[in-house]
Amino acid sequence: MMDWLRENIWAAWAGIAVVLGLAELASLDFTLLMLAAGALTAAGVGAFFPHLLWLQIVVGLVTTAAMLAAIRPLLVRKIHHGVELKTGSAHVIGRSGVVVKAIHPDGGGSIKLNGELWTARPYDEVSTIEPGTRVEVMSIDGATAVVYPIGHPIDHTMPELPKDSEPPR
Length: 169
Hints:
With 169 residues, the chain is of the alpha+beta class. The chain is built from four helices and five strands, in the order H-H-H-H-E-E-E-E-E.
């Protein structure tokens, strides 16, 4: 067994790399992944120089240290500091919609938000918001959007043309 290990030290290093890589799946910290990369480089050196264990260890440690210093911080920053995913009703906070049914302090109003109809109540609890007004969702209270007006009601009527003017040609 020891003779086989001396002849195939690269396989031992590759086995260590696989175990460390699998352990990384449980931790997701990228430290064990850097150790696995060091073990893989040691396996490469072991394939060419099977009797120089000290060289395999030095190359593996140098690779691991370089990966921990240079690559791991970049990976951690990229993975852990990305855009925060908002789930549930929190994804609508800060979005704007249009009042469909007048919103009164006592409730009963509704807004159209991202193509969906939401029940709504005013943020300040004293004002009434007319239909057609653009509102911003300040928070969610149960299944009710708490909104604040950000615009004037939209006038959907066509302006009248003066009677003495001619239509354009």
